[in-house]
Design brief:
two-stranded antiparallel ribbon, extended, 5 helices, 5% strand, mainly alpha, disordered C terminus, 128 residues
Length: 128
């Protein structure tokens, strides 16, 4: 265990989320709302409405990338994380989460070893 829950009041996942927020939050653009602290889907819709009312808009694109996280290469994800995270302990912990199984509808499912992303085991900050 990287952090002692009784010392900080946080579990490992919460502590890693705080660290990752500090590192990656500056990279997000102002109009990015997904899974960001203090932002909601209602604020995103309000921002869209303001943008439409202030400027001439010819088209609006709403994209939902189906199964994106089911086919995201864990190997590449870890390479991107290692590019910004120097602490090997945190990288190993993230790799452990990626390999973790999940419980869905009362059934235990193993993580797919073929490089697919186990988005259930990873903090929501990465799902943006």
């Amino acid at each position: 265990m990287l952090w002692k829950e009784y010392e900080t009041g946080l579990d490992e996942k919460q502590a890693v989320v705080i660290v990752l927020h500090q590192i990656y939050e500056e990279d997000f653009l102002g109009f990015s709302y997904g899974f960001r602290p203090g932002r909601s889907q209602h604020q995103a819709l309000d921002a869209l409405w303001v943008g439409i009312m202030r400027k001439k808009v010819n088209w609006i694109l709403d994209a939902d990338i189906r199964d994106f996280f089911d086919h995201l290469s864990q190997e590449w994800l870890v390479k991107f994380i290692e590019h910004r995270i120097a602490d090997r302990r945190i990288v190993r912990l993230i790799q452990k989460w990626l390999r973790a199984g999940v419980s869905e509808d009362g059934k235990w499912l193993k993580s797919v070893v073929q490089g697919y992303f186990n988005y259930h085991a990873v903090p929501a900050i990465w799902i943006v």
